[in-house]
Amino acid sequence: MILLTDPDGKSRKKAAKGKAGKQPSEDISCFGCLPWQAADGKGKHTIPLYNVLWAEVRDNALVVDYAAPRKSSLKLQQWTFALPTPELETGDPSPEAFVAALIAAAYGEAKPRKRAYVLINPHSGPGGALGKWKKHVKPFFEAARMELDVVTLSRGGEATELSEKVDIERFDTIMALSGDGTPYEIFNGLGKRPDAAKALAKIAVSHIPCGSGNAFSLNCNGSNDAGVSALAVVKGVVMPLDLVSITQGDRRVLSFLSQSLGIIAESDLGTENMRWMGNKRFEIGLATRVLKKKCYPFDLSVKVEVDGKEMIKQHYKKHVEDHSLLSVDAVTDGAEGLPQLKYGTVQDEVPADWETQSYDNIGTFYVGNMAYMSPDANFFSAALPTDGLMDLVMMPANISPMAVTKALLSVETGKFFDNPIVSYKKISAYRITPRNQQDGYISIDGERIPFEPFQAEIHRGLGRVISKRGLYEAEGPTGWKEA
Ligand SMILES: Nc1ncnc2c1ncn2[C@@H]1O[C@H](COP(=O)(O)OP(=O)(O)OP(=O)(O)O)[C@@H](O)[C@H]1O
Fold first, then answer.
1. Distance 448 CA to ligand 1 centre (A)
2. Which of 82, 230, 340, 403 is buried most deeply by CB count within 10 Å?
3. Residue that terminates a domain, selected from 194, 222, 244
């Protein structure tokens, strides 16, 4: 609670001393009391510090723009406090000093007035991105005095082209109002530049959820709501993010979110005709395939880094409790292009120290770099933004559909990680080669690529995103605190 009129004057003078919090989170509870008596002598007005977008002195009044809770979202509100006349008492902080201290405390380590290159995909998910922008996002950004350059995308591939040639000195963030496909295009546009490593480290990608999955926003903003996410971006901090190079044939693309083959890929990409349903289309796709016990034979070579669920919980605990393990140095100005591939491409020999095995009965092959894949689907509960590792999940299909369904339903209750039919490893690279199938679906961040072998290798902290707290907004595997 930050702004309190103070009728008996006990807390006067404290306000201007309000310290900037480490993070602008809701936990920062008290900035201080207004150092002036309310002209009308009335009681208090409280605004959570996290919700303050801006403050200024105008026409002898203190004017605070803030995001006020409204049902499950937020609404822009303005609070005006008439400053006392005539003159302020000697020793009172000046209104300007108070405002400066208030803004510093409200933003903490977050950069105020971020400069955003906003890319809106009007055809995302069930549609409505333009409406969300006008009604729920732009008002907050304007109130927060952000600098905005807004583009409504007119075709697929445009976000890649725009990111490839953006002036990286001009913006703090490239923001997608979309599903997860547009952030994928943005990372790949930045990755195509001759100064890719520098551009990926310089400009943070951010996301306002307008698609059907919206994993980026769920993990980084902690919300699937456009208004709540807009506030999270206004108040968000830059977070390094591991990115994965995928090589297939002679192509190389970057993945920020996930790779899948089998049930998950089919349920997403094979249900495009049901987009109007939003994220329900995925659940329906999943149920149909589980009942059919569909298997997807493949050969897999993996560089395993952390194996065993207890070891993974300990790895997670270590990284969450010691933030320094998740920080990375910025790429130096001299860096050029994408990093070299440590293990070559899918066309090279598989390195001798990778574990290679043939699988015939797997239904789910799913690799994640973030925790939530869609609302209520914390598939990769041990995922960390910058541990330099991908999380590999596999589930058999040749068992009772009941057992698979039970495991999939446990994603919602947070018990998926511990389910005995779920294999969970932390890996740094792999190659997968589908066998005995004419055609099928491979999904990279929800985008379809040819049904051919591919190889993946992770680059620790190659990208940057805006996140609410510098960590994923996810709970972690159950029991990690005790690990
Ligand atoms: N104006 C447009 N018209 C048609 N396609 C577009 C347009 N703008 C972007 N696209 C395409 O839309 C896709 C990205 O959509 P989006 O960012 O909503 O992600 P998504 O993953 O498809 O969303 P969802 O979560 O709904 O599945 C990309 O393949 C991109 O090429």
1. 12
2. 230
3. 244
